[in-house]
Amino acid sequence: MSDSNTLVEVKNLKKHFPVTRGIILQRKVGVVRAVDGISFSIQRGETLGMVGESGCGKTTAGRTMLGLYPATDGSVIIDGDDILHARGKDQLKIRRKAQIIFQDPYASLNPRWTVNSIVSEPMRVHKLFATEKERSERAKDLLGMVGLSPHLLNRFPHEFSGGQRQRIGIARALASDPLFIVCDEPISALDVSIQAQVVNLLEKLQDQLSLTYLFVAHDLSMVRHICDRVAVMYLGVIVEIAEQNELYENPLHPYTQALLSAVPVPDPRKERARKRTILVGDVPSPINPPSGCRFHPRCPVAIEKCKDIVPEWREVSPQHWVACHLVN
Ligand code: SF4
């Protein structure tokens, strides 16, 4: 349910990619249902984690929310404006409110551009500041905010380490003064020693600038550290959402339970007692997802009706939503 404190509202968002055959005629032979009707909201200043195995649709969901992939259906309201259906000047104005930090700090920065050009580009697109000089001054400030020396403004991306490049990507995301940032696995390509520094920086910037994050990740321990609530995705749909502590202490969906059972525990005694749920089989193809509950071919506790009937999406305790026939 949305209220004045809701910044982002996603309703029935779908992203289907056509599958074609043939080089010249390109006959459509099916669709990949990468994101297949997800709905959720994010409160102002909140961090919502989005987790799931590779290929579950979490990255596609984040990118479709910002219009980087055209949505097949649904809407995304950010600060009261529909970001996917706005056109012309309105579109530019609304898109300024939402930015993205990409996973790969090597591929996401143009190697031929200086740091100044990279960080100033969103200001140019959104027509912020009247002159290049003013934009460069702002770019220097942004470098300072992400922990880089303003003297590095005229360097090229290849002169930086992975962690420094990710800081440049963060400065670029901040350049249009956004309210909301999709952090698309922002630390998974970095050395473990650098990951905590980037997470701390993101947390510091969130406090300073009152930012709201969607944090897409597959590292469940890091998600627990940084997120207020967590959504679990499986094969294009969300199967469970809850506050971070509630989800980790009381996971209700069998898929969430299996994911969490694989997270190592720092206490050696608890680690020895930990029971792992090993999921059988591979994730089914999103071209032809299973009927009923999409998780049923791999679910260790599936019952007969799971094959045919899609489980209802229900709030089982305050803020704890789940889709499973066995959860009351
Ligand atoms: Fe398993 Fe059935 Fe629940 Fe799906 S609905 S998670 S198959 S028990």
Describe the secondary-structure layout.
Elements (H helix, E strand, L loop, with lengths): L5 E16 L5 E17 L3 E5 L6 H8 L7 E6 L2 E2 L5 H8 L2 E4 L13 H11 L6 H14 L16 H13 L5 E5 L7 H18 L2 E6 L2 H7 L2 E6 L2 E7 H6 L4 H8 L6 H6 L40 E4 L2 E3 L6
Parallel strand pairs: 3-8, 3-9, 6-7, 7-8
Antiparallel strand pairs: 1-2, 1-4, 4-5, 9-10, 10-12, 11-12
The structure holds iron/sulfur cluster.
Iron/sulfur cluster (SF4) binds next to loops.
Describe this structure in words.
With 328 residues, this protein is α/β, with parallel strands linked by helices. The chain has a single domain, classed as Rossmann fold. Helices cover 30% and strands 25% of the residues. It has ten helices and twelve strands. The protein has helices at residues 58-65, 88-95, 115-125, 132-145, 162-174, 192-209, 220-226, 244-249, 254-261, 268-273; strands at 6-21, 27-43, 47-51, 73-78, 81-82, 98-101, 180-184, 212-217, 229-234, 237-243, 314-317, 320-322. The chain has an eight-stranded mixed β-sheet, sandwiched between helices. Strands 2-1-4-5 form a four-stranded antiparallel β-sheet. A hairpin with a 2-residue loop joins strand 4 (73-78) and strand 5 (81-82). Helix 3 packs parallel to helix 5 (162-174), helix 4 crosses helix 5 (162-174) and helix 5 (162-174) packs parallel to helix 6 (192-209). The radius of gyration is 21 Å and the shape is globular. It starts with 5 loop residues before the first strand and ends in a 6-residue tail after the last strand. The relative contact order is 0.14. The model has no long low-confidence stretch (mean pLDDT 92). Bound molecules: iron/sulfur cluster. The site of iron/sulfur cluster (SF4) has 13 residues, from loops.
